Amino acid sequence: MKIKVTIASVIVFLMTIISFNAKAAQNNVYDLSEWQGNFTDSQVQQLKKEVPFVILRVQYGSAYYDKTFDHNRNLLDKYKVPYGVYSFSQYESISDAKNEARVFYKRAPNAKFYVNDYEDQTVKSGGTNEATLAWLNELRPLVGKRKILFYSYQSFMLKHASEAISAYDGYWLAAYQSTEPTREHVLWQYTDHYYSPALGKYIDSSLLTTKKSDWFIGNNGQSVVENTKYYNYNFKFKVKSTAQNNFYNHVFDDNKYKRKLALNQYNTNYKGKTVDVNKKAVVNGKTYYRCYHNGNLLGWINADSLSAYIDYQNISEYKTIKVKPKNNFYNHIPGSHFSNIKMVHHGKSYANKKVKVLAKAKKHGWHSYYYKCSYNGKHIGWIYQAAF
Questions:
Q1: Rounded to two decimals, what is the model's pTM?
Q2: Mean pLDDT throughout 87-103?
Q3: SS3 call for 288
Q4: Four-way CATH pick for 19-217: 3.20.20.80, 3.40.190.10, 3.40.718.10, 3.30.930.10
Q5: Is 299 exposed, middle or buried (0-12, 13-18, 19+ CB in 10 A)?
Q6: What is the model's pLDDT at position 372?
Q7: Most buried residue among 143, 154, 239, 252 by CB atoms closer than 10 A?
Q8: CA angle, 274 as apex, 272 and 277 as ends, to 5°?
Q9: Does domain 229-306 have CATH number 2.30.30.170?
């Protein structure tokens, strides 16, 4: 009787291990850095059985290169374990964000996908949404069709990158809780205390829920077709002056309507115009909006062709620039629909000076303002309110 119980216990134990490994391989994804040390051959061989892929940290800002990345990446390549990479971003401006993205790619040109891990507010000039979008746009032509994700906590994302995130292929959401968050996401980091038998450590782990592993790492060169998801979404945008997409009667990438797809309107007729949105669609990592102009339906357009809608108001008052301003003056508001947005004056050039404010403007959905300023009768541009 004791022998039977022991055998039964062993069988149950083994079945539990098998079940655990099957579940881990199907659902869990580890994100790893130098904190987990240098991997060994045996660890990576076991790791391959535990997870469909891993995500390695490459850098902490552009100045700090993860000490274990080269070693661990080489072992993953050796044993054919797919990997994505992330940069713990520390950019302080638009130009700095572009540089971090270039350095990131140079260090990991063969990754399956790329992640902007932005969870510290480090931007000092140019606007956080603008810098976060610049990071993406700098990386996009380098990685081709590989996915680019944005990682952060929901509260931080809403405060600092709620506009830029729509241009990314997906949102990797950090939320340490027992129930899956309702906010749209492609990967959910649900714990920082998941035990990996392969590594013998407790680590950060994320769950694959709405997307399968092929969406992240590819499917032997074959494209993965996702079902289009539709949402109610009431918002305002401007059509970019540089818009490349047109308006269609259906979502362009929705295969369900491929045979019924037809051009509704050319973008050339609506560049710089305000559009109202009542629906949002997401398919294969791309976002589309159903747009109206003056109550007339234009159709669906790719989010890449839309920019922030901005309310402008003429005013006349004086404000004093900070002694050490971290913002600069621009010819147009960063993130607006204009094509030639550029910095025209450093904020520090007018430190502690009283400037005349000619107008103020607020992006749709924002609570903060940009101000149009002049000094001694000379127009000096738009600057964010934090400069005062």
A1: 0.55
A2: 95
A3: strand
A4: 3.20.20.80
A5: buried
A6: 97
A7: 239
A8: 130
A9: yes
Which one has a higher pLDDT value, 368 or 132? 132
Same fold, 229-306 and 310-387: yes
Contacts of 12 (CB under 8 A, 6+ apart): none
Count of residues in the chain: 388
CATH for 310-387, options being 1.20.120.520, 2.30.30.170, 3.30.70.20, 1.10.10.10? 2.30.30.170
The answer to whether the CB of 296 falls within 8 A of the CB of 312 is no
- Inform me whether the pLDDT recorded for 228 exceeds 80: yes
What is the DSSP code (8-state) at residue 377?
T
CA atoms within 13 A of residue 106's CA, in its CB half-sphere: 9
Of 134, 161, 128, which is closest to residue 386 (Cα–Cα)? 128
Does position 119 have pLDDT exceeding 90, yes or no?
Answer: yes
Average pLDDT over residues 348-363: 96
3 state SS for 87-124: EECCCCCHHHHHHHHHHHHHHCCCCCCEEEECCCCCCC
Q: Where are the domains of the chain?
A: 19-217, 229-306, 310-387
Residue type, 12: V
Q: Which two tokens stand for residue 305?
A: 């062709």
Q: Is the pLDDT of residue 341 over 90?
A: no
